[in-house]
Design a protein that fits this description.
Length: 407
């Protein structure tokens, strides 16, 4: 089969090898299964290349630079970029359809879902909508909310053969049901993990030396893109109280983004700049080094916390402190796998961290239960991607359709 993907975000959402791995791993799985893959994505230039066997097509779409604190301007310009993306991607996509003659067309993220539907309709081939979580759940039951989030509503409502939504705790299944998506069309799958992520265990002392952290310090780790809603500021705000009660501790923040300067300034104002290390962008393959060294993993996102970093922390058997929001609480359904705070009880965060730092047996027990949960409940990346490959291959059970239709 020939698979054409149209996306508003690159194969790696940050830079090569950094960011969420699921987009790249999906394309690689199709390639490994013997299919041809073309990935067209919005960028800053027009260019073609080959990346690990994947045919890459970058096309230029206006992407404004927005001051980090201008939230309203950010939202306005995001919508404007979406409106510009739609015709640009549709025109280029049709050219690629005629050139590549795909058997299935993917629309990645909400920008590209309507484009994939249009191209599939014109080419006479199935189209797939692939969404990596959603911000829509708090708005979906209010008419005004649906209007505010029209771009996401259209992604869910765009006709497609299958709607594949990542089960990251943001309740994409409930959103799909509220918007009338037939259950037979929805595939609500959790991302995979490498169960041997932290095996062998890396040397914590070497990492601490690289980061300038005293060798006897405990580490509290956060891994995320540094944007507002991932709320790394909550950890930094807790650090003054934590360090007063437990001096030998340092927080390490892995990731980068528009909020980094604000977070660094917050650490200075709070008097803990020497107790918060910003490691910056780290290749996905290097994240296990940080997880292995962490005594506590913290994730305090606003919407849900069951993203790749938390899943990988589970696989590494880390003691996890997070929030009981979205569907995050499901990981504690069969027992205490992580310490989950209600958002109304965030003022307890410093005391919870202090108690865990002082209580080695409990912290280690939580880590063991986290590891057991990962082994029992989380698919491997191979298992997860096999589901998707089989789903797509079933669209052409007797072989790929004739390419002449799309031409």
């Amino acid at each position: 089969m020939r698979i054409l993907s149209v996306s508003s975000i690159p194969l790696w959402d940050v830079e090569d090898g950094k960011g969420i791995p699921s987009i790249y791993l999906g394309q690689k799985a199709f390639l490994d299964a013997g299919h041809e893959v073309m990935f067209a994505y919005a960028g800053r230039r027009h260019a073609r290349s080959i990346y690990h066997g994947i045919q890459m097509v970058e096309f230029a779409v206006w992407d404004p630079a927005v001051p980090p604190r201008s939230l309203w301007l950010t939202r306005v310009l995001e919508r404007l970029r979406w409106l510009i993306f739609l015709p640009v991607a549709a025109v280029l996509g049709w050219r690629l359809v005629r050139e590549f003659r795909p058997d299935v067309i993917y629309g990645h993220a909400y920008h590209a879902a309507p484009v994939a539907w249009l191209l599939g309709r014109l080419a006479g081939v199935p189209n797939i909508t692939r969404l990596y979580g959603t911000f829509l759940f708090p708005y979906v039951h209010a008419p005004l909310g649906r209007l505010v989030k029209l771009h996401e509503v259209l992604a869910f409502r765009s006709p497609c053969r299958y709607l594949i939504v990542t089960d990251d705790g943001t309740r994409g299944d409930a959103v799909a049901a509220a918007l009338g998506v037939p259950a037979s069309r929805l595939r609500f799958w959790r991302n995979g993990v490498n169960r041997d992520l932290c095996d062998p265990v890396w040397d914590p002392a070497a990492l601490k030396e690289e980061l300038g952290v005293p060798p006897d310090h405990s580490l509290i780790l956060a891994v995320s893109r540094l944007v507002r809603w991932k709320r790394v500021d909550r950890l930094i705000a807790a650090m003054p109280a934590v360090t007063r009660a437990f001096p030998d501790v340092t927080a390490v923040v892995v990731g980068d983004g528009e909020e980094r300067a604000n977070l660094e300034a917050l650490a200075r104002r709070a008097g803990v700049a020497d107790r918060v290390r910003f490691a910056g962008l780290v290749a996905h393959a290097d994240v296990p080094r940080f997880l292995s060294a962490a005594d506590i993993f913290v994730s305090l996102y606003e919407i849900s916390n069951v993203g790749n970093p938390l899943l990988e922390a589970l696989a590494c058997g880390r003691c996890i402190v997070s929030l009981n929001n979205g569907a995050t609480g499901e990981i504690n359904r069969d027992g205490e796998v992580a310490v989950l705070l209600d958002e109304a009880a965030l003022d307890r965060l410093p005391s919870v961290l202090i108690e865990l730092l002082r209580d080695d047996p409990r912290r280690l027990a939580l880590g063991r239960r986290a590891r057991a949960y990962a082994l029992t409940h989380l698919p491997t990346w191979s298992e997860r991607m096999t589901l998707e490959v089989q789903l797509i291959e079933a669209l052409a059970p007797h072989g790929a359709p004739e390419h002449g239709r799309a031409g």
